[in-house]
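Dear Dr. H.,

I hope your travels went smoothly. While you were away I took the liberty of generating a structure for the chain from your last submission, since the lab meeting agenda had it listed for discussion. I wanted you to have the full record in hand beforehand rather than looking at slides cold. The sequence, exactly as received, is reproduced here:
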Amino acid sequence: MQESGEMTGVKIGLEIHVPLNTRQKLFCDCPTNYYELDTPNVNICPVCTGMPGAKPWPINERALESAVMVAKLLSCKVSTDNKFVKRKHYDYPDLPSGYQRTSEPVGVDGSLGGVGIWEIHFEEDPGRYDLAAGHVDYNRSGVPLIEIVTAPDMHSPDEVRVFLKELINLLKYTERIVEAGGVMRADCNISLGGGNRVEIKNINSIKGAYKAISYEIIRQGNLRKRGGTVIQETRGYNEKSMITTALRLKETADDYRYIPDPDIPPLSFTSEYLDRVILPETPQSRRTRLMEKYSISENYAQILVKTKELADLFERIAPKTDARIAADWMCREVLRQLNYRGIELEESKLNERILIELFNLLKENTITENTGKKILERVIDSGESPEKIVSAECLGRVTGEGELSAAADAVLAENPKAVEDYKAGKKEALNYMMGQVMRRMKGRADSKVIMELLREKLE
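The corresponding predicted structure, in token form, is as follows:
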């Protein structure tokens, strides 16, 4: 089955929930570090556990400012009209009060990378319910979230993956989101050929979104081919089996019985307040700054800022080595090794110290590029010191003319056919002999030097 939206009429929209980095919950002063705790139900109070008579505190101002900041970053319209915080009613063990407080849209009609942003609002996170054990942990209950709702402008799992990577990278630049334990939880809405929309709940990673959507497109397509009808429903995604399973019929807005929360006054954003919400450096503005400050190419700067962690690491390294060597190696060799392993930078053993050592060895011509590549391939998994490897294993660049000349003489003597071919005009024979010398020198000699040496000896 084709994944193209043009072939199948696939439409995909996302509801992305992102926890905000605040010290206190949205409507009480309980700490928000639930992701650091092993003990359940310690960051709780009567407000965030929905005790009768408990009233919400004034809204967390940092959370509110963060929601406005993200709305502005995503080019949303932020109105100054009254915004109500509403109660969204549903019964589930992770929601102790029987309703979730969620705001009316803070921003609407935005866009990112060609994908429309319908709205951004803030809400309180429910607790965590372990269905198998029947236990509920309310440490997370009441933590502030923003929800970003996209238009159904994506048509394949690949488009979703590209969008989510760009969005999460942009959100990281705000330094207002919680990055521990996964940045986001997403609900994916998928329909084929104008059929009913199916929602897949609580996907916790970009990889999970890609696999869940891929499966759901195939499932709906096969159902339609058999003459069946796709019903509007909510499904869950099983990470282990990589399939979606039915949970319940999809609710509508009326099912939630939204009402304005009588305990929370409506919010009104003045123009002065909106002007005071200062936007952070974005990937685009950082790209320009990196080019100007470190004299690196636009291509390398663009690659670096696509992943905030990579750009941050580069900026810590650049003042302590040659910035252009650092950019070149991080954008080519480091990313090549990470992509080969299918891991992110933070999953590797690379760190600031290791890369500074490696790049300085290259900067000072202590090692060849070939040796550098081999060392990088090793330390990315082991976390060893490049300087200690070079010293202990005598991997420094060979510059002595006598040693190189002897190696070249040996290769020429062992390969009379290659010598004859070269003299007959077959230039590829020279590359072969250069490779043989490099192998004898274990990659510790400069290939250009070897090439010139062989030409001299063959004339």
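Two observations you may find useful: Residues 1-7 have pLDDT under 50 and may be disordered. The longest strand covers residues 115-124.

With kind regards,
E. W.
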